[in-house]
Amino acid sequence: MILLNQVNKTYHPRGNAAVAAVKDVNLQVESGEFVVITGRSGSGKTTLLNLVAGLAQPSSGQVRFDGVDVWSLSDRAQAFLRNQRMGFVFQFPSLLQSLTTLENVLLPAMFAGRDGKKPLRERAVQLLEEVGLADKLSFYPRQLSAGQQQRVVVARSLVNQPELLLADEPTSNLDEQSEGRSSTSSRISTPAAGLPSCWSPTPAIS
Ligand SMILES: Nc1ncnc2c1ncn2[C@@H]1O[C@H](COP(=O)(O)OP(=O)(O)O)[C@@H](O)[C@H]1O
Ligand SMILES: [Mg+2]
Q1: Which of 81, 94, 139, 163 could join 143 via S-S bond, C-beta 3.0 to 4.6 A?
Q2: What are the pLDDT digits (tens) for 41-69?
Q3: Lining residues, ligand 1, CB within 6 Å
Q4: Which residues fall inside 5 Å of ion ligand 2, going by CB?
């Protein structure tokens, strides 16, 4: 499903020496696989995920999604791919402040033109139940803790039933329940359905 072929990403910050953030990475991820990327901060995890998502362009090498070179696609086709086939959990909560919890979860579905349908709303509510926020559907982000906001993001990432889920240190904000767990791992997974148990912001996280 995902193929990275000799991928490099070098940043050239103005006035500073070039930074080789990702070097000669070859990676193949098949449907049904769950990949955890570990490394200390600055080791290139976010850059690697951005490369997989097509959010960063490789300096050299290729990123393929289902055999297609992501950078051969138009902006529109890339956006479609991200919206319809990928789910994202970024490292920092990224909710729209003017929308409620439920509306935030429904947003990717709205972009996909699927918002009005009742099963979708039910799915969003169910996902919010799974992450333990059934009683916060009409709360706004500012009324939630950082960890709760991140759980909304996890629900949002799954609403369009993505084939590929990218999560950048998804548990780093998950309060007391994430204590003792590595906060420096990012994940690539291909969820067949719903929320893999190891993602759940409950003590089930391994
Ligand atoms: N936009 C950028 N411009 C310049 N350097 C960057 C940029 N983004 C990341 N880097 C550098 O690339 C390296 C890898 O960063 P990053 O992928 O964020 O690592 P991680 O997610 O593992 O903490 C770091 O040295 C960082 O400073
Ligand atoms: Mg990072």
Answers
A1: 139
A2: 899 999 999 999 999 999 999 999 999 99
A3: 11, 13, 19, 21, 39, 41-47
A4: 45-46
| CA-based nearest residue to 55, from 33, 36, 70 | 70
Q: What is the pTM of this model?
A: 0.82
CATH architecture of the domain with range 2-193: 3-Layer(aba) Sandwich (3.40)
Give the Å distance between the CA of 41 and the centre of ligand 2.
Answer: 6
* Closest residue to atom 17 of ligand 1, CA basis: 44
Here the tokens at position 126 are 């169910």
Question: Torsions phi, psi of 12, nearest 5?
Answer: -120, 75
Q: What confidence score (pLDDT) does residue 180 get? A: 45
CA of 91 to the centre of ligand 2 (A): 7
Summary mean pLDDT of the chain: 84
Calpha distance 171→186 (Å, rounded): 9
What's the first-to-final CA gap in the chain, in angstroms? 25
Question: What pLDDT is attached to residue 91?
Answer: 78
* Confidence category of residue 200, pLDDT binned at 50, 70, 90: very low
Please choose from 8, 11, 41 the residue to mutate so as to test ligand 1's pocket, defined by most ligand atoms within 8 A of CB. Answer: 11
**Segment holding 158, helix H or strand E:** helix 146-158
Pocket test for ligand 1, best of 7, 12, 19 (most atoms within 8 A of CB): 19
